[in-house]
From TrEMBL:
Pfam families, per database record: SCP2
Domain of life the protein comes from: Bacteria
Residue ranges constituting the SCP2 domain according to the UniProt record: 24-95
InterPro entries: SCP2_sterol-bd_dom (IPR003033), SCP2_sterol-bd_dom_sf (IPR036527)
Record's protein name: Sterol-binding protein
SUPFAM superfamilies to which the protein is assigned, alphabetical: SCP-like (SSF55718)
Organism: Larkinella terrae
Gene Ontology CC entries for this record: cytosol
């Protein structure tokens, strides 16, 4: 799956109400996925902008997180997933994506 396909998948999972009033950037090795939960409906794009929380992860590992093949805590502990900014927000977005 490429970045654009995964962006569409995240857009469907987030829906119209993200459940958080913040911005999140998923910074992958193939580009960024930016989620603006401050807007209604939530905006999901490939913009590379500053965010309240940035999650750095490879697109391959992000896909595994989405399917449940990779546990988020395991990914974090082994350095496959790095969080900059609001950790609580990272956990909230993790629930939306799995």
């Amino acid at each position: 799956m490429n970045l654009q396909d995964f962006t569409e998948q995240i857009r469907r999972r987030i829906g119209t109400d993200s459940g958080f009033d913040a911005t999140v950037k998923l910074a992958t090795d193939q580009g960024s996925i930016y989620i603006d939960g401050r807007q209604t409906p939530a905006v999901v794009s490939n913009e590379d902008a500053e965010a309240d929380c940035t999650i750095k992860v490879s697109l391959s590992d992000l896909q595994k997180l989405g399917t449940g093949e990779l546990n988020p805590m395991t990914a974090f502990m082994f350095g496959k997933l790095k969080v900059q900014g609001d950790m609580a927000l990272a956990m909230k977005i993790g629930q939306k994506l799995s």
